[in-house]
Amino acid sequence: MTNKRRNSTQQPSLPGLFAPIAKSRRLATPSEQALDVARVRIVAAIIIFALAYLVIAGRLADLTLMNDNNSDALLARPAGNDSVASRADIIDRNGTVLATSLPTISLCADARNILNADEAEQKLLNVLPDLDVKRLHDDLHGAKHCAIIKRHLTPKQYYAVNALGIAGLEFRPDERRIYPAGNITSHVIGFTDIDNNGLAGMEKELDARLEENQEPVTLALDLRLQTILHNELSATIDEFHALGAAGLVMDISTGEILAMVSLPDFDPQHPGDGDDEAMFNRDTLGVYEMGSTFKIFNTAMVLDSGVVRVSDQFDTVHPIEIGSQTIRDFEAEKRWLNVAEIFTHSSNIGSAHMAERIGGARQRAFLSRLGLTEKAPIELPEVGQPLVPAAKNWYDATTMTVSFGHGMAVSPVQLASAVATIVNDGVTVRPTLFLHADKSTNTEHIISPHTAAVMRGLMRLVVTRGTAKGADVEGYMMGGKTGTADKIAHGHYDPHARLSSFVGVFPLNAPRYLVFAMVDDPKGNAKTKGYATGGWVAAPAVSRVVSQIGPMLNVPPLEPSMEAIAEHQVLKPLGTEVLDGIQIDEGSNYASVESDSVQ
Questions:
Q1: How far apart are CA 387 and CA 376, in angstroms?
Q2: For residue 522, which phi and psi values (nearest 5 degrees)?
Q3: What SS3 class is residue 345?
Q4: What is the pLDDT of residues 376-393, one digit of tens each?
Q5: Cα gap 501→103, rounded to integer Å
Q6: E strands in 366-508
């Protein structure tokens, strides 16, 4: 009992801080009382200092690990209290990033805090040799609070400058715009300046939106289709030694642009390296005389008017002399042709006679309703104004030449939208670069559904029997129209320089997609027997595009038996009499026609 009582009341006898103190013991003297208070205070002080040490040690360890192993984290949290608002991403319809922003660091200098400006200048040039020497000298010897020395330092550059240990240098948070797809989407996406201000394309069009709202902007583009179109147009340029090309893929039901390529193009990461040709968007800003693709509109107009029937015949034997101009066909027929044959053979003479029946006023009004006399309503800042003769200057010669695509100039996106309208049962199709953009409920028909059905039949004949046999894709029921327009040089048409194009639609029995290709000044070769018309150059390019994108768009090819049934349905609106009466010389090279249109 005695031992237990002694053990319960005694403390371990440790020298210094923890002397044994009995619960019932009273301090005998003031000196002992003061000593006890001092001990308590020392304990408290030691605890506080220990906690502070742990905090500081933890912070130092954090910084050390970050510097050694995590450069990305350091870049994301640069020195300074400033913050940079991130610019919103631009993505394609599948969520693939087309434009994004990455955090970076920029180097500034406060010259007032730099002890030795000359020494600092030399050290900086050693690690950043691309700096402008004079500007660096002025910045380091000036009086600016924060002179920007270099924007968007790489991690390696950041560490090299930081290791210099120069007082007065500051690192500020910054942001750099990145374009993962590079030049493939350059004309659509555009680019920004070094301060992330939009200067072209969607970057400029949506500048305020991208700055104010961090939600990504979703475009109708499909990068897969964009890449295929880009590759095929590039290959066509190489094959025919052309100056450039333009093309697009459109969803006919919505007007969504799934792909849009203009060549030559540029690197949006370094737009200053591109020349004027590379920076020019041929799809929306360029306007061109489109040649025989305009026969789609001319033929639809005369048929829908009721003045002309598809079986009506016109003189295509004799060239037309009007003023100082002569309208002729490259391969003139020695007989009169009906409307179907004029369209299939791409006769300029026949098209001119058809337009003459309607007259210039009605022709101009029809083209206006198709959206060909005003700027295309596309969401880009680079949109060209079509070149359209004034109504008072719309003479008989204008009526005739416009019928086959000379005398007025439009952009490729305008042409594509108008053709989509024709095959879409005549219901207006408006182009858009946005996914699921708001659509008008307007269901007004520019032409009747019956006329649209006839036009689809005629466009199928062009591919199976006419100038665009090279555009056919097995199982995809292609239809379309070729175009070859002589270019104007020094105020006159140059018969040795041309724009060769083809606009195709598939599947024609239930139109879903339109593909357009235009090649600037292609040169014929041995494979094409020296020809460089739309049928030889652009039609095969579209065929290659369709064969690749069809499966991606969930358009399964038709089996041969089903394709035959579908073709019968497409051609049926033309009537048995017309189909049986079409004379096609299988030995004739219709892919070579459309040159020497106007002289």
A1: 12
A2: -75, 155
A3: helix
A4: 999 999 999 999 999 999
A5: 44
A6: 479-489, 492-506
Complete DSSP assignment for 540-589: HHHHHHHHHHHHHTT-PPPPHHHHHHHHHHHHGGG-HHHHHH----TTS-
Name the residue ranges covered by the structural domains of the chain: 90-217, 225-271+289-592
Distances (CA, A) of 111 to 52, 132, 250, 284, 342: 36, 17, 56, 49, 78
Q: Check for a shared fold between 90-217 and 225-271+289-592.
A: no
The structure tokens 């180097």 sit at 107
Using CA atoms, how far apart are residues 194 and 175, in angstroms rounded to an integer?
9
List the chain residues with pLDDT less than 70: 1-38, 40-41, 43-45, 48-53, 55-85, 437-442, 583-599
Give the residue numbers annotated as catalytic, written as ranges.
292
Give the separation between CA 52 and CA 44, rounded to whole angstroms. Answer: 13
Residue 455 is predicted with a pLDDT of 98
Per-residue b or e along 574-590, where b marks 16 or more CB atoms closer than 10 Å to that residue's CB: bbeebeeebeeeeeeeb
Task: Choose among 247, 250, 251, 249: nearest CA to 233.
Answer: 247
> Cα–Cα distance between 590 and 466 in angstroms, integer?
6
| pTM score | 0.82
Separation between Cα atoms, residue 263 and residue 278, nearest integer Å = 7
Using an 8 Å Cβ cutoff, are 22 and 8 in contact? no
Residues 6+ apart with CB under 8 A from 9: 22, 23
Q: Identify the pLDDT of residue 16.
A: 39
Topology adopted by domain 90-217: Penicillin-binding protein 2a (Domain 2) (3.90.1310)
Task: Give the whole-angstrom CA distance, residue 355 versus residue 368.
Answer: 15
One CATH from 3.40.1010.10, 1.10.3470.10, 3.50.50.60, 3.40.710.10 for 225-271+289-592: 3.40.710.10
Under DSSP, the state recorded for 504 is E
Q: What is the pLDDT of residue 60?
A: 54
Q: Can you state the percent helix, strand and coil of the chain, rounding each to 5?
A: 45, 20, 40
List, in order, residues 6 or more apart from 437 with CB less than 8 Å away.
220, 254, 255, 256
- Give a three-class secondary structure readout of 102-153: EEEEEEEECHHHCCCHHHHHHHHHHHCCCCCHHHHHHHHHCCCCCEEEEEEE
Tokens, residue 375: 């700027």
pLDDT digits (tens, 9 = 90+) for 323-352: 888 999 887 778 899 999 999 999 999 999
